[in-house]
Amino acid sequence: MHKFESPARVAELNPEVTLRKIGLKDGDVFCDIGAGPGVFTIPAAKVTSARVYAIDVLDEMLGIIAQKCSEQGINNVTRILAKEYSYPIAGGECDIVFMSTVLHEVDDTDALLKEIRRILAPQGKLVIIELHKRETPIGPPVGHRISEEKLQQIVEGYSFAQDSLISLGENLYLATFSK
After folding, report:
1. pLDDT score, position 4
2. Nearest-5° Cα angle at 1, 147 to 115
3. Cα(139)–Cα(136) distance, rounded to whole angstroms?
4. Does the chain have fewer CB atoms within 10 Å around its N or its C terminus?
5. Structural domain tally of the chain?
6. What is the CATH number of the domain that holds 46?
7. Distance CA 164, CA 4 (A)
8. CB neighbour class for 58 (10 Å; exposed up to 12, middle 13-18, buried from 19)
9. pLDDT per residue over 91-134, tens digit each?
């Protein structure tokens, strides 16, 4: 878990600033797929009073989020243990679906992107943070990463349009897409 919340990683991700950059506001339903220990879930739950979904494949990570919510008096986070790419979320419910350094780990991109499309509101936003496809101080081998161009190609294949692409620093980039 320490790698997820290392000071250098959190500083580069800069969750509060990043959430403002993507336009998260009070009243938005936010879905964090691959939430980990809540690096983005917890700050998002402080921005919006609406539901925040934290989805992860590890119950341990969801337990960490539950503990943080309890300690900080946060009561708008719904934790979901993901076993497959089908989530108990109503169709069109989420204003922002968010993934940070997750997509390069996904086995069934097709199933995941179809499910994201289902839960995303008609005017919703898909936000993806990934590692630059070059040698960087952190992250998996370059061959395991997704380039900015490849990410755009993959996601646009599911009827999304890329809205923006920015660098978050030496290691990471952020892409936003709309339906």
Report:
1. 66
2. 50
3. 7
4. N
5. 1
6. 3.40.50.150
7. 25
8. middle
9. 999 999 999 999 999 999 999 999 999 999 999 999 999 999 99
